[in-house]
Amino acid sequence: MEHAFCQSCGMPLTDDNKGTNADGSLNGDYCAYCYKEGKFTQDLNMCQMIEFCVQFTDQINKEAGWNLTPEQAREHMRKYFPQLKRWQQKDDRTIFEKAAALLAHCSEVTLVSVNAAGFPRPVPVSKGYTVGCSEVWIATGADSVKAADFRANPKAGLCYSYLGDSVALRGTVEIVTDDRVRAEMWRDWHIDHFPGGAADPNYLLVRFVGTEATMWINGEFVHERL
């Protein structure tokens, strides 16, 4: 008997694990983990799906009777996944649109300032408002080291990654203290850091704008001026 496989993740399909169409009927192409109510459950590209699935190598080995290392499993998927229906469909988005989608997946980015001695100072920070793939707003303390660095030197770097894809940006930072903008960009969780709310004098915003990008997305490498 020929077995059917999920055309997104390669999992063997049974009536117990099939995804569902918009009308609630079972879908014959995709599993319930990848497809539900007529939509894919995760907005991933093929390389990201491979990295997601590699996390479950031990479970795959147990169910299939294999003894693959994560790297062996990754290599197997790289050869097999291009044959699956989902990944044969062309993605017509530009590399910048793909990068913007990547940024949307990330709750945290790494912001890099340059200190007084000329050394880069990378710090993981929570992402705020974003525009496209290269403009990111971040809340920070007026008394923070990064704020001091940016007051002295606006040159900056910023990078983000998700399931193996990554974007590294070089650009500049603008320090924003305007009360109207601070109120507009305020988020409820900021209260944990700025007990005075949007009017807290220690609450300020940095606006990073990238001018150059190095991108590795779904096996595509691009270095571009923005």
Brief rundown of the structure:
With 226 residues, the chain is α+β, with helices and mostly antiparallel strands. It has helices at 46-54, 57-64, 70-80, 85-88, 95-105, 145-152, 179-185, and strands spanning 18-20, 26-31, 35-36, 39-40, 108-114, 120-126, 130-131, 135-141, 155-162, 165-176, 203-217, 220-225.
List keywords for this structure.
226 residues; alpha+beta; Pnp Oxidase, Chain A; 2 domains; elongated
Rounded mean pLDDT is 95
CATH topology annotation of the largest domain = Pnp Oxidase, Chain A
Tally of extended strands?
Answer: 12
Derived from helix and strand composition plus strand pairing, the structural class reads: alpha+beta
Residue runs with pLDDT of under 50 for 5 or more positions:
none
The CATH C-level name of the largest domain is Mainly Beta
Considering DSSP H and I runs of 4 or more, what fraction of the residues is helical? 25-40%
Count the DSSP helices.
7
- Kindly report the name of the CATH homologous superfamily of the largest domain: Electron Transport, Fmn-binding Protein, Chain A
Tell me which CATH architecture of the largest domain applies here: Roll
Q: Can you write the helix and strand succession as a string? A: EEEEHHHHHEEEEHEEHEE
For the biggest sheet, the summary is: 8 strands, antiparallel
Describe the structure.
With 226 residues, this protein is of the alpha+beta class. The protein folds into 2 domains: 18-89, no CATH class; 97-225, Electron Transport, Fmn-binding Protein, Chain A (Pnp Oxidase, Chain A, Roll). It is built from 7 helices and 12 strands. It has helices spanning 46-54, 57-64, 70-80, 85-88, 95-105, 145-152, 179-185, and strands at 18-20, 26-31, 35-36, 39-40, 108-114, 120-126, 130-131, 135-141, 155-162, 165-176, 203-217, 220-225. Strands 5, 6, 7, 8, 9, 10, 11 and 12 form an 8-stranded antiparallel beta sheet that branches. A two-stranded antiparallel sheet has the order 1-2. The protein has a two-stranded antiparallel sheet with strand order 3-4. α1 runs antiparallel to α3. The termini are far apart.
